[in-house]
Amino acid sequence: MKQINRREFIKLGVTASSLLALGGSSDLVTKVFGKRETSKKVLILGLDGMDPHLLQIWMKEGKLPYFQRLWSQGNFRPLRTSIPPQSPVAWSNFITGTNPGGHAIFDFIHRDPERYFPVFSASETTEAKKTVRIGNLVFPLSGGEVKLLRKGRAFWQILEDHDIPATIFKIPANYPPASSKQRTISGMGTPDILGTYGIFNYYTTEATELKEDIGGGRIHEVYVIANRVEAKLSGPRNTFKKDRPESAIEFKVFIDPVNQVAKISIQDHEFILKEGEWSSWKRIHFNMIPTQSVSGICMFYLKQIRPNFKLYVSPVNIDPGRAALPISTPKRYSEDIEERFGPFFTKGLPADTKALDNDVLDDGEFLEQDNFVLRERLEMFDYELARFSSGLLFYYVSSTDQRQHMFWRLIDKEHPSYDQGLAKKYGNTIENIYKDMDKMLAKAMEKADKDTVIIVMSDHGFSPFRRSFNLNTWLKENGYHSLIKEWKQGQEDLFLNTDWSRTKAYSFGLNSLYINQKGREAEGIVKPGAEKEALVREIAYKLENFQDPKTGGNPVLRAFVAKDVYQGPYVEEAPDIIVGYNYGYRSSWATPLGRIPKEIVEDNTAKWSGDHCMAPEVIPGILLTNRKIKVKSPALYDLTPTFLQIFGIEKPTEMIGKPIF
Ligand SMILES: [Zn+2]
After folding, report:
1. 50 CA to middle of ligand 1, Å?
2. What is the pLDDT of residues 57-89, one digit of tens each?
3. How many angstroms separate the alpha carbon of residue 105 from the centre of ligand 1?
4. Fewer Cβ within 10 Å of end Cβ, the chain: N or C?
């Protein structure tokens, strides 16, 4: 088996360089859909990760007056989330009105059983099949393809069948956007220009302990010579050249010998930054061959000039004005927004949590960046709200989720990463984003007339993530997973030290457990049928009864057997067990990568300190609306038929939910 490092793995999933060079597929539909005027309106705010417990506390304290007012006009309920409650899975439930058996997104990461290799679940890229070589250059004759792997129909496609207009702003799990004449723009799952989920660049003279190539970023050692720094910014691979070298742009930084400022010169841009200052978006072009270039946008942050030079460059986002990959329907939609607002974040999750987790950005710097994201999102909301007159508007916010992930450690004194000093300074970060959402809701409520149904919802809530569970280590300790070399335990990723001939089970992804099944896995040993069935039940039972030696708590609250909880045509593709963690526990960072550390449970000392990949009952989402809810315990997949019902459309048979009103 070929040795593959983490960076290559991360890049493999969504690398799309051949497409980048050719531009997105042609999109002839430029007129926005929806001729039938309906006076009915559905306005949905999708606030990722908003938690019912926190919401209720701050509503009661009078800190969220508009949430409270909406509650008194209609209803507030916890919203049942998906199994597992990962955002791509949960939003797919919402989009299709089914569960993973109906939309085939089971985890952020799936696996290829032929190779025991992780693959991203959301999209797949294939490169041009036919090429022609002329000397050192390679020309694609056919376009490559980027494919959305979510199955099932999206609710806005069904609305379109009935001529009801919809605008879907950055809903997750919709990259590339499902084919539609409606206005849609992709969100979570949209890659950066490298085809990855985001790689920042950090240039520093400081001897750093960080490796050159950390997950999500690259560290470059640079030198200041005669007050000048010369460096390179990497771009997509140049598929026009035979050995497919990485494209790159050289740039220079001129440091003022006296003042704390520097001038950055890159392509046709020259700009001055003070220490601690962010640049605006800079549009740059990676040149492939004389007639082809790829356009991207990035921001520079001059973190320090002296004693050490430190410059952060954000992941290069797809340029929304000249999108090299499909990010909206119609294609014109992202260009229209770009014309009005200028360049904007297109990368799926825009805030750089990796840079914060690796101490490249500190808390304040990360918040500054996420404030750019938030401000942009709120400005565009005003625009979409102002022109919303008929049909459905879905509007998504990511900052709620991202800030809870990164700042939970400062509201949870029991968290291993709790820091009293930082808590004083940033302990209200989560509360503040809830207040920002209250102001956003205020605008929605002011605009709503009697025909407008307002729905404020989240895909899941939040829990502390204090202890990490090494699921593969647990499998090994319990005799279900065997290593080739015991002494090498914990050193290899991607199960390179696993003896498959003596392994019955393994875990990839954040909640997924697979049986090493004969005829399905390349070196499967467990017979499907009764033998497998018994093994699945045995592992599920033992997992639920395992106790954390440090706390005495049960890390696993529920181990779900896939075929007990999923319905639909894709159940066969599901993992065999979906592990539902308890409050405070989550899968370790090693598990999705197929690494097997020595300890079963460890403290989570990362800044990524809040999470939601638990059992669904631990972290329900929220549902607030200005109508009375008639269902006792509504679920994400109940909302989909609800919208259809409002517009008088019959529920398709594949949808498993019930309208809530
Ligand atoms: Zn999240």
Report:
1. 10
2. 999 999 999 999 999 999 999 999 999 999 999
3. 16
4. N
